Amino acid sequence: MAEGRMLGERARVERPRLERGDRERNQALPALILDPEKIRGKHAALCFATMAVMLGLPLWWKTTETYRAALPYSQISELDSLLLRLRVPVSVVFVQGSLPIVDQQKLPFTIVNERDIPLKCKMRLKSRFQQAYRMAGSSEENALKKDTVQEAEAALPLPKEDSLGSLNIFVIPEKSSLLPQDKMSYIGPKRTAFVRGAHGRQALTVIGQKILQVAQAMSLTEEVLASALGDRLPEDKLNLDKRRPLKSSLGYEITFSLLNPDPKSHEVHWDIEGAVENYVQPFMSLLSAIGNFSMDSQVLYYAMLGVTPRFDAATSSYTLAAHSLPHVINPVEARLGSRAASLYPVINFLLYVPERAHSPLYIQDKDGARVTTNAFHSPRWGGIMVYNVDPSAYNTTRYPVKVNVDMVPVMEVFLSQMRLLFGVPHPQMPENFLLGSPPSEGLRYWELDRLVWARAVENLATVITTLTSLAELLDKIGNIVIKDDVASEVYRAMDAFQEAALELSAGNLEVAFRASREAVTSSEKAFFDPSLLHLLYFPDDQKFAIYIPLFLPMAVPIFLSMIKIIVENQKARKDMEKVD
Amino acid sequence: MLSKCVVDCPELCLAYLTSFPSPSVWQDQAEQLFKSGHTNNWAVLVCTSRFWFNYRHVANTLSVYRSVKRLGIPDSHIVLMLADDMACNPRNPKPATVFSHKNMELNVYGDDVEVDYRSYEVTVENFLRVLTGRVPPSAPRSKRLLSDDRSNVLIYMTGHGGNGFLKFQDSEEITNVELADAFEQMWQKRRYHEMLFIIDTCQGASMYERFYSPNVMALASSQVGEDSLSHQPDLAIGVHLMDRYTFYVLEFLEEIHPASQANMNDLFQVCPKSLCVSTPGHRTDLFQRNPQNVLITDFFGSVRKVELTTETVSLKPDLSSMGYSHLKCHEDEELAEPLSYAAQLPVAQIIHQKPKPKEWHPPGGFILGLWALILMVFFKTYGIKHMKYVF
């Protein structure tokens, strides 16, 4: 107020020299600065701006963020370079006379043999053969005094731990007659094997090497694990084996179909229920360790093959050449159904009874020779067998001819195809190994163990890729929402994974396999949860189009008033300097 | 359909056999060269338009569906998404048909078309769910893409498109970035071995610009800035029946049979500018094999790898139980009684059911808000002192 009066006096004193505009301006300026309404207005504008910036911006940022529940990103990135130890518990039993006395006194002890499995993938695998050496008990000694290996094996008492993945090796005297002369070892259908002992200074080392050879042949080899990790390894175009086995899944649906293209001539009966019960069920009960199996069967009439067979005059039979086989499956596949409710992969086994006009029908391989089994299979799909009707059955006048299918050769073929589809090939042993014949189920126990090892490792590799790709996706695509239940599934998958890895290094294959299955289920559930679908990709121009009508009407008055305040302050300062 | 195959194939088989002197040697070489590494084929065919004047898009998709089925991919491996409002449209002078040639030569609708997503189910969300596998648990098998790491997937899309987007059913769009991200999600989970993406829309090349996942080959009917044109109108039906690009692709596919050795370079030459008016484009930089070595049937057909079974398992025949279960079967058949249909429905129970009493719920938010507003306005107008008469 004092300044105002002073200015006014000065203005009066210097009146003739000042212009009107100047005087008005000088009178207006203090009013502008000091008017209480105007000050309140300025304070209000400043408050609005502060609120908008301090409260509004963070609130908007927080509420438009995609919700992401916490995930263990660091643990997931560690998974990639994980070291998996696969422990195989081997119990080695020495019979009297198989070791020099000096070494016998050192028993019992345990040797651990750990080696790297070289695979060209990031996951490192080590196999650990834990061999527990001991002398044989009296019942075992008596059993091993039999004449042939098979009898000895049958007479052996059941081992204490016959769990999945373990091995029992018996070392018999070097000159023993249980094995034929040139054979070094015998591998039985269950988890037992016999190895010849040795004499001399380095007896234990020599025996140790033989035992390792046998143990590796029966359980973990590079090929087993390579086939399990087939798609994680760099692609090798010439290696067909990696493509053959069915992928690890929680369950499988097996369908047996009888194709009768000519019901006018053949009335085909097949006792599929009985055959499944007698021959397939024992096999399946062994395989049920790796998944749930459901079986069904059907009969299809007028289902033709897609290819017309050629007539071979020399044998007066019809032949299907090997290169036309790939085209056989497709027309038939359209007719084969599958259960609508289950999502398990389907394995089809087809039995084709050729039409009267094309009987008998044989399959030829590339060189023109007949295939003895008259069957072929397709990886990851199933198998087809051609069943020729006995020509003597046509010597009647009553059509259709009744055909009772002999299920034994059919089931033999189907079971061997099933083995191949699951990746259990006929074992290749070195020359001096004697391989025992397979048991009645059709699958040797240690072959099943190999399958379970492969599946467990495959499951763990799948979990690693699923979780790492989920983390990568979340990084790359910013709009994916992670709900709490998805996060809990991821945590559960991680826990099951750790448990599986722990159990594998402890040697409990069954528990480890179950844990690996749980890990796979949880990780798949998390990855394929329907809520992860990011549908809200907004390109930048669409983002502007949405936000501008909301923010612009609010922002414009604030900005303008800010600018006005700043301009006025600058003017006031300039004027005050001038006046001063 | 099946008898057609049997009739066609013998001539083709014989021709195939007689044209090469030593089939086994050549077969080995061919196998090495054309080995593609896949074991099954899937196809996702999408028509993104509805309404009568978009007849040609439905005819496009159905023609590709027919070719793919003819070459061997079964319905269980095809996901067909159509608006399906052409055949029974009131404006269709020939109901229950969809023609793809003028003069109504070829009816592509027929009896055995299995549409998996029809009408309003063809949305961007469902399409992306099918691709990424994130379908709700209630979706049946036919609505899922159950491909694995050894599947070759063919994706065909047609409709109206623009620069960087494709219009779905006149109400929403899918952008090329979303599509590229969906393919990346498929790749991360290894849901395909190799993929062929064909798109027949205006400015189709913009849709494959943003792909960044490996093993994807893409074909489009026109470049950015160009329109894809339709082929020919049929005066009786009153609309255009097919698009040019798809028409010439189909002419090319008619000559392909399951044993054909035509490769992708031939497909790239289909529909030159003189016939198509627009310039078809393709993108192969993400694909690992040379297009020369990629067979058409790798994607459009379903040729399976087959191995001969040479060894068998030996089983002990179990004679006693075999005959018995056979007899058991017959007895079971005779004992079963026929059920009468009406006896299965508890009609009396349904008719005499008492209506369930509905539970009382307190008034919801809207009603409360409305009453609060009315009360506030009343007291504002007439002053707060009236409140004491309420309580």
UniProtKB/TrEMBL annotation, chain A:
> How does this protein lie in the membrane?
Multi-pass membrane protein
Transmembrane stretches, by residue range?
Answer: 544-567
- Record's keyword terms, sorted: Endoplasmic reticulum, Glycoprotein, GPI-anchor biosynthesis, Membrane, Transmembrane, Transmembrane helix
Q: In which pathway does it act?
A: Glycolipid biosynthesis; glycosylphosphatidylinositol-anchor biosynthesis
Q: InterPro entries recorded for this chain?
A: PtdIno-glycan_biosynth_class_S
Task: Name the family the entry cites.
Answer: Belongs to the PIGS family.
| Domain of life where this protein originates | Eukaryota
GO BP, sorted A to Z: attachment of GPI anchor to protein; GPI anchor biosynthetic process
Say which species the protein is native to.
Vombatus ursinus (Common wombat)
Q: What is this protein called?
A: Phosphatidylinositol glycan anchor biosynthesis class S
**Sorted alphabetically, which Pfam families does this protein's record hold?**
PIG-S
**GO CC terms:** GPI-anchor transamidase complex
The segment annotated Disordered runs over 1-22
Q: List localization entries.
A: Endoplasmic reticulum membrane
Automatic annotation (TrEMBL), chain B:
TM stretches of this protein: 360-379
Give the metabolic or biological pathway. Answer: Glycolipid biosynthesis; glycosylphosphatidylinositol-anchor biosynthesis
Which Pfam families did the record assign?
Answer: Peptidase_C13
GO-annotated cellular components: GPI-anchor transamidase complex
Q: Which residues form the active site?
A: 160, 202
User: What are the record keywords, sorted?
Assistant: GPI-anchor biosynthesis, Membrane, Signal, Transmembrane, Transmembrane helix
Give the molecular function GO annotations: GPI-anchor transamidase activity
What is a biological process (GO) this protein takes part in?
A: GPI anchor biosynthetic process
To which protein family does this belong? Answer: Belongs to the peptidase C13 family.
Q: How does it assemble?
A: Heteropentamer. Part of the GPI-anchor transamidase complex, consisting of PIGK, PIGT, PIGS, PIGU and GAA1. Interacts with GPAA1. Interacts with PIGT; this interaction, via a disulfide link, stabilizes the expression of GAA1 and PIGK and links them to PIGS.
Q: What is this protein called?
A: GPI-anchor transamidase
Native source organism of the sequence: Vombatus ursinus
**What broad taxonomic lineage does this protein's source fall under?**
Eukaryota, Metazoa, Chordata, Craniata, Vertebrata
